[in-house]
From TrEMBL:
It comes from Marinomonas spartinae. The gene is accC_1. Transmembrane segments: none annotated. Gene3D superfamilies: ATP-grasp fold, B domain (3.30.470.20). This is Biotin carboxylase. Residues 123-320 form the ATP-grasp domain. Acetyl-CoA carboxylase is a heterohexamer of biotin carboxyl carrier protein, biotin carboxylase and the two subunits of carboxyl transferase in a 2:2 complex. It comes from the Bacteria. Pfam families: Biotin_carb_C (PF02785), Biotin_carb_N (PF00289), CPSase_L_D2 (PF02786). It is an enzyme of class 6 (ligase). This protein is a component of the acetyl coenzyme A carboxylase complex; first, biotin carboxylase catalyzes the carboxylation of the carrier protein and then the transcarboxylase transfers the carboxyl group to form malonyl-CoA.
Length: 467
């Protein structure tokens, strides 16, 4: 199929905007970047075929303004819009507005985004498809009385979760009825403030669980899975370090889990790339669906590394009308891959953001190394957005080889002028429990206080070389 008549507008910034630009240009598609005043000199603005400034630095005055993006699309004669991740990527109203404007939305339709974006509805949908879910309330809970009644069935400890939440936000833990009474009101208030909706639901809290997610891809008629990712190393429920495949799953469990994920995608007539997230209990070998992300994920490169499938290109191709030519039998696991998120943050000060100007930048090169980034020498990192600077993705024929290559890659990486989370990743790669995959979703929160002094000393050493 010839895509050269299309003009793709990227409604995002940073490394994902660069990733989409490269994928689109490889397909012969003209790329259009929109940016804030703070990003006028950014790498996406430089790489795109055309660029338009749509608003001030603040995201709520630029990247989150659907009307500004749609007006830019009109002026730039765009034919399609790719939302990336974050910002408006899972906003059903935006997806519908794109279609109503006569444009193509690169992703699932608004109905699917709305259906699976509401976590309570997503649970019901998964159950209807025969996928186990974590024991929880039957839909949303709108009163403390209702929460207390539901807790008798759900059991303690439990999570109070915002139905419209995401990214680890809008979640409170209650270990008994007294905590439930206190945390429920707080959870509703936080959900309303963060997502515009105070709707919450209850879910059993599995304390020793792994966070496993399955990548799916569909064209609206046919869906496949591309195996799973291990995302258990999290700080404040934000992913820090991911790998594929999960070192915790047996081949039998992997097959069961991935087949159920593909079954749900098929039931949704899913179009585009998406991710189904599960909790996995090592002891019982039980897995439970928790939510779905109807967009490309930050950690998608580890799946690309082990399967050889370009997920972003396929998102674009199916959105533009090409049928999925890959069959499930074509997808095999080749080796092991890890992704380390390098953020401009200072571990010595509670991982506080560390924006500033890069004075020197050097990335590693070599077999199995991939860098997804929007950085360049002299770049001024703005303080207005997420602190993610780059993703260092490493592939090896074995997990051990991937870890060894990762240590070498980080030692060869030089980012000067700002502090980063590289010391954290260097320490994780050499920790015995991490190397043997002996961890769960709570591990990093315990590990950090015990090892923070080492990271602080390393940050002090790094600070001497960056100033």
């Amino acid at each position: 199929m010839n895509f050269s008549d299309h003009r793709l507008l990227i409604a995002n910034r940073g490394e994902i905007a660069v990733r989409i630009i490269h994928a689109a240009q490889a397909l012969g598609i003209r790329t259009l970047a929109v940016c804030s005043e703070a990003d006028k000199l950014s790498l996406p603005a430089t790489l795109a075929d055309e660029v338009m400034v749509i608003g001030p630095a603040r995201a709520d005055q630029s990247y989150l303004k659907a009307e500004l993006i749609l007006e830019a699309a009109k002026q730039m004669n765009a034919t399609a819009i790719h939302p990336g991740y974050g910002f408006l990527s899972e906003n059903a109203d935006f997806a519908q507005a794109v279609v109503d404007a006569g444009l193509i939305f690169v992703g699932p339709d608004a109905h699917t985004i709305r259906q699976m974006g509401d976590k309570a509805c997503a649970r019901t949908t998964a159950q209807a498809a025969g996928i186990p879910v974590v024991p929880g309330s039957d839909g949303e809970i709108d009163s403390l009385e209702g929460a207390i009644a539901a807790a008798q069935t759900v059991g303690f400890p439990l999570l109070i979760k915002a139905s419209a939440g995401g990214g680890g936000r809008g979640i409170r833990i209650a270990r008994d009825a007294n905590e439930l009474a206190k945390e429920f009101i707080i959870a509703q208030s936080e959900a309303k403030a963060a997502f515009g909706s105070g709707a919450v639901y209850l879910e059993r809290f599995i304390e020793k669980a792994r966070h496993i997610e399955v990548q799916i891809l569909g064209d609206g008629e046919h869906s496949i899975h591309l195996y799973e990712r291990e995302c258990s190393l999290q700080r404040r429920r934000q992913k820090v370090f991911e790998e594929a495949p999960s070192p915790a799953l047996s081949s039998t469990i992997r097959e069961q889990l991935c087949q159920k994920a593909a079954k749900l995608a098929q039931a949704l007539h899913y179009k585009g790339a998406g991710t189904l997230e599960f909790l996995y209990d090592d002891t019982s070998e039980a897995f439970f669906f928790i939510e779905m992300n109807t967009r490309i994920q930050v950690e998608h490169p580890v799946t690309e590394a082990i399967t050889g499938v370009d997920l972003v290109q396929w998102m674009i191709k199916v959105a533009l009308g090409e049928s999925l030519s890959i069959q499930q039998d074509d997808i095999t696991i080749n080796g092991s891959a890890i992704e380390m998120r390098i953020n401009a943050e200072n571990p010595a000060k509670g991982f506080f953001p560390s924006p500033g100007r890069l004075t020197h930048l050097q990335w590693p090169v070599g077999e199995g190394i991939r860098i997804d980034t929007h950085l360049f020498d002299g770049y001024l990192i703005p303080p207005y957005y997420d602190s993610l600077l780059a993703k260092v993705i490493i592939h090896g024929q074995t997990r051990q080889q991937a870890f060894e290559r990762a240590i070498t890659a980080l030692n060869e990486t030089q980012i000067e002028g700002v502090l980063t989370t590289m010391p954290l990743h260097k320490a994780l790669l050499q920790d015995p429990a991490i190397k043997t995959a002996d961890f769960d979703t709570g591990t990093l929160e315990v590990w950090l206080p015990e090892n923070l002094h080492k990271l602080i000393e390393k940050e002090k050493d790094d600070a001497l070389t960056t100033h």
